[in-house]
């Protein structure tokens, strides 16, 4: 019997250049996902295989950007019990496919990863970061896949990018500095990979993230263990913005 993921042919419509077709596909996927309080891992992995392919096939800057933003927005409509498995399937899919992404297609996937890191932090920030068990579970997902210190199957390129944008996305989700965000806890995967990775370049990139000057006085008090001489990073080439003049995109 076909799985429900196999019966979602609208997924391929995400790569369409026609906005009406893309919007209809997004509405269909939202309806499909929002009505589920439990989805098996195999279904989620199949779903993400299809969504990855749609991202792969998308062309033109605004279509790529809009698709990445729309896919990340799915996190906001999921049943709370589905969010973490959905995010886990996303990271596993990206890790599996990363080394096969062509150079000319890489920027749109870098943007997608940034959007998903942002969406995951927004989810954790609900109710003033009070769901400690969800935070711990998600940090385990990060440590198990994109920020795994030594698993050879995890591409270093993905590690580098997540480390490069990690503090940026924490900064955005905690823009008002209300003092509720458990910053030290959220930095734990970065500290772990900085200490335990056997790859010098990965350790260096993690240290650069931890030396970010924004961490020195996050809530008005110096953070213990963070360098006070943190240097300003040059920034990621792909910014979290859907304006065409910010990113020219990649034409397939």
From TrEMBL:
<dbReference type="GO" id="GO:0005634">
    <property type="term" value="C:nucleus"/>
</dbReference>
<dbReference type="GO" id="GO:0006364">
    <property type="term" value="P:rRNA processing"/>
</dbReference>
<dbReference type="InterPro" id="IPR010301">
    <property type="entry name" value="RRP1"/>
</dbReference>
<dbReference type="Pfam" id="PF05997">
    <property type="entry name" value="Nop52"/>
</dbReference>
<dbReference type="GO" id="GO:0030688">
    <property type="term" value="C:preribosome, small subunit precursor"/>
</dbReference>
<keyword id="KW-0698">rRNA processing</keyword>
<protein>
    <submittedName>
        <fullName>Nucleolar</fullName>
    </submittedName>
</protein>
<keyword id="KW-0539">Nucleus</keyword>
<feature type="compositionally biased region" description="Acidic residues">
    <location>
        <begin position="241"/>
        <end position="252"/>
    </location>
</feature>
<feature type="region of interest" description="Disordered">
    <location>
        <begin position="220"/>
        <end position="252"/>
    </location>
</feature>
<comment type="similarity">
    <text>Belongs to the RRP1 family.</text>
</comment>
